[in-house]
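Q: For a teaching session next week I want to show students how multiple molecules come together into a single three-dimensional assembly. I've collected the sequence lines for a complex. Could you give me the predicted structure tokens for the whole thing so I can convert them for display?
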Amino acid sequence: MSVLQKPATVRTRGRVGRGVGGFARKWLLFVVLVLLWELVTRLTVSVFFPPPSEIAVAAAKLWFSGPASQLFLGDAVFDHILPSLGRVLGGWLLSVVVGVALGTALGRSRTGMDYVGPLFAFFRAIPPPALVPVFIVLFHIGPGMQVATIIFGSLWPALLNTVDGVRSVDKVKVETARAFRTPRRYWIGLVVLPAALPKIFAGLRLSLSISLILMAISELVGALNGIGYALLAAQQAYDYDQMWAWVVLLGILGYGFNAALLAIERRVLGWQPGRN
Amino acid sequence: MSTMLEVSGLSHRYGTGDAAHVAVRDLSFEVAAGQLACIVGPSGCGKSTLLRAIAGLLPPTAGTVSLHGDRVTGVPDDLAVVFQDYSRSLFPWLSVGKNVEFPLRWSKLDKATRRTRAREALSAVGLSGVEGKLPWQLSGGMQQRVSIARALASRPALLLMDEPFASVDAQTRFDLEDLLRRVQTEQGTTVLLVTHDIDESVYLGDRVLVLSKSPAHIVADLPVGLPAQRDQITTRESSQFVSLRSEVARLLHGPAATAAADAAEWAAAEQADSTVSKVENAQN
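A: Of course. Below is the structure for the complete assembly, covering every listed component.
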């Protein structure tokens, strides 16, 4: 038994060692740069560039200083972070639902894209931030304007990638499905959408990062609350620790969203050869 | 024996006018229920066009196809097709079991029955216990067996096979040929198999239909008198097999076939010439 167990412990240690090694490879440069940043900002004292440790303290005070009844979350979480998260995820989800549904219909229709293709190309070419003033006029300052901006920017990647994806079903699969008299519902659900999923996911990742960018921009330009609003307010109040804290939060959110979507993608597209 | 498939006067032309290409010309034949008929013809002779017209995937420009007496207009209910390209025909996002269940999804069968049927079909092709695997995790020959199982799971009255063993290695090919004959006998399925391989058509078929070069028409309809139980070694060395395969080969490549093809080519060339001169006359 002991002979059998020994390699097992060695293997476990090896795996842990590899895990630590992989973690170090991924984050070593990051940690070194943060330490360097700390060092430089401590040596060259500047109000505009506080050391990361002070930013962390400001962030902790801002977000984790609430009473127990609020799970120790600060008011800023409820006033700014949650509304912003709601806008990003709400706007993005609406774009995804509309984009995938419309993209599937248009992609599978023979002439659909001929009618709307040039229109889409034109709309997609307009930088969405340029429409913020237009949406302010239409929806006034508030969440409606922000969600509209987010949808206008994040719809196109989801929609156009879906169109591209549902067109990529190869001929043999089309004929196989036809030879089995596959009803429409099953044809879309079991053949067209799975075949399109790799492209759809590429579109979803792009549109999620665009959603985050447009959330920040639209809140900087005109909002009553939100991360972008709080960031600008901190800057205008000369509270640069807080300003940086919000910037860091945006980075963390972007990283987290992408990681979460990648994890979902790995699960959903697990059937692809060469994955895992 | 009753007639399962009846093809009469079938022609198909791609395109119209001068650019038209006649792929199949005036084909007529019948396949009896429970028979395994092979269609053999040179590459590019219009075999696939014929098969797709029979499957109802392609409406022919002339002629009719009837399956157990019913005229085929769309894809008929009790028909299944096995394509040459198994890796593209199987759905890579569905497990092997789900692939085999695929044609049963919209039937009235409940989930448990569907699963049992899929398992039965897989064990009929000698693939038990791979339901949970993904298609790409199996070898090429096993993948083609999965697509045969999928076709059998729907219990088709007619099984159409388009060069089903052309993409597997020779050894696997022998195994699959024997497997097809065994399953076909066990289940009494009517099979129409298209191939360009003369030996395969003789070895597999109860009957061999020999097609000419494009436009395809039937040059011979040969019954195969070999015993029902066939063997890759003894059957292939039997004098009956050898003489039959020579006969098919002569029909496909012999002087008669070449002469007929030449005549067709001459006729086509003359037609083209006359069109050209007509155009020239018109220009003058």
